[in-house]
TrEMBL record:
PROSITE patterns: ODR_DC_2_1. Residues 23-266 form the Orn/DAP/Arg decarboxylase 2 N-terminal domain. It comes from the Bacteria. It catalyses: meso-2,6-diaminopimelate + H(+) = L-lysine + CO2. It comes from Flavobacterium sangjuense. Specifically catalyzes the decarboxylation of meso-diaminopimelate (meso-DAP) to L-lysine. Substrate binds at R298, Y302, E329, Y356. Belongs to the Orn/Lys/Arg decarboxylase class-II family. LysA subfamily. The modification N6-(pyridoxal phosphate)lysine is found at K49. Keywords: Amino-acid biosynthesis, Decarboxylase, Lyase, Lysine biosynthesis, Pyridoxal phosphate. Pathway: Amino-acid biosynthesis; L-lysine biosynthesis via DAP pathway; L-lysine from DL-2,6-diaminopimelate: step 1/1. InterPro entries: Ala_racemase/Decarboxylase_C, DAP_deCOOHase_LysA, De-COase2_C, De-COase2_N, De-COase2_pyr-phos_BS, Orn/DAP/Arg_de-COase, PLP-binding_barrel. This is Diaminopimelate decarboxylase.
Length: 401
């Protein structure tokens, strides 16, 4: 999207504001499907925890996507957005058995990553198809908080516990129809991903009635000019070749599944905020905006970098700014960042705001959550209204004291 288009949306809908470009989401979806075009049965399950607005879900459903969910509420949102149960996979961690039962009764594919849960579910529902999430003990991901396939991770059943899994399957006669892994997010080296894939293939050989292999996702997107990203095209060539060979070895056609979230929506997202104050100290020039980590927590949470543009003065002389929010706590988006000269009242644009931004937003400091807009066919469509004071009071009860 162009600065002028974003600025017009800022004026129309106000700041702060999330904007999502429908065309970019479609481009990313097609990149992935084209990279694996030689796979007869390819399934993309959008990891909706990245961005769960029902209009975004509907857009992805229309592209042919399925859904990866991690809570009963996400499952319900997916069904509300028009996904059929057979297009949804449920991959929880540490949830109650009752929640898993509730999802199973909806006809959604269950993915289990715990031995005790697997045994309990198999004993009670032996005929219900179950996918098993393995932990390949492969360290991948750009941050320890998003590396989930290593030996100390809470996710997945250890590959060293597969004999135990096989005993449970034999004893319960349960139906295992898929094997799943997820090593982590922001994968830089596809060779590490391919190495973990070999572990998945080796594990799959021990289960005779599989219908699909799920390789998770974690594909890295660029966050700044010249930034490294996962080479999806090269991964597609190498993994397709290996997958087709495994199908012949296994003796039946399988579905190859992925669960991209950030890869599909991150670059499509823009976060717009107004500059409230320019404050100069003895060593720093602060640009204080009308937002904070209540709306964009990733820089404070993960140390992530979001490119920041001054769309009110895109061709201005660059100066160094530390961009901060209005939260009553350390609330820094960028330190000493080169940005075209900023004035009070300007609108700043944060790139890569499509994934884990609104979905992690909160009402900290009793601030309202912003509106969301989908840019499609050259027009901005409001897909979530800005919160009001009534939203803050909605579920509160004032008692007599």
């Amino acid at each position: 999207m162009q600065p002028a288009e974003l600025l017009s949306l800022s004026k129309e809908f106000g700041n702060p504001l999330y904007v999502y470009d429908a065309d970019k989401i479609e481009v990313q979806y097609n990149r992935l499907t084209n990279a694996f075009a030689k796979v007869e049965k390819l399934r993309i399950n959008y990891a909706m925890k990245a961005l769960s607005n029902i209009s975004i879900l509907k857009l992805l459903r229309n592209l042919g996507s399925g859904l990866d969910t991690v809570s009963i509420q996400e499952v319900q949102l997916g069904l509300h957005a028009g996904f059929t149960p057979d297009k949804i996979i449920f991959t929880p961690n540490g949830v109650s058995f009752e929640e898993i039962e509730e999802v199973a009764k909806l006809g959604v594919q269950i993915n289990i990553d715990n031995l005790s849960v697997l045994e309990h579910f198999g004993a009670k529902y032996p005929k219900t198809p179950v996918c098993i999430r393995i932990n390949p003990h492969v360290m991948a991901g750009g941050n320890e908080n998003i590396s989930v396939g290593h030996i100390d991770s809470k996710f997945g059943i250890s590959i060293y516990q597969i004999p135990h899994v096989l005993r449970i399957v034999e004893n319960t006669k349960m139906n295992i129809n898929g094997i799943h892994m997820h090593t982590g997010s922001d994968i830089l080296d596809i060779e590490v991903f391919l190495y973990a894939s070999e572990i998945l293939f080796d594990t799959a050989k021990q289960f005779k009635d599989l219908e699909f292999l799920d390789f998770g996702s974690g594909f890295k997107v660029p966050y700044k000019k010249g930034d490294i990203e996962t080479n999806i095209e090269e991964l597609g060539k190498k993994l397709t070749k290996r997958f087709l060979a495994f199908e012949k070895e296994y003796g039946r056609e399988l579905t190859l599944a992925f669960e991209p979230g950030k890869f599909l929506v991150s670059e499509a997202g823009y976060f717009l905020a107004k500059v409230n104050v320019i404050k100069q100290t003895t060593s720093t020039v602060f640009a204080g905006i009308d937002s904070g980590f209540n709306h964009l927590i990733r820089p404070m949470f993960y140390g992530s970098q979001h490119n920041i543009e001054n769309i009110s003065n895109p061709k201005g002389k660059e100066r160094f700014y530390t961009v901060v929010g209005y939260i009553c706590e350390t609330d820094t988006f960028a330190n000493n960042r080169r940005i075209p000269e900023i004035h009070e009242g300007d609108t700043l644009c944060f790139r890569n705001a499509g994934a884990y931004c609104f979905s992690m937003a909160s009402n900290y400091n009793s601030r309202f959550k912003p509106a969301e807009v989908l840019w499609k066919d050259g027009k901005g469509h409001l897909i979530r209204e800005r919160e009001t004071f009534e939203n803050l009071l909605q579920n509160q009860i004032m008692i007599e004291l």
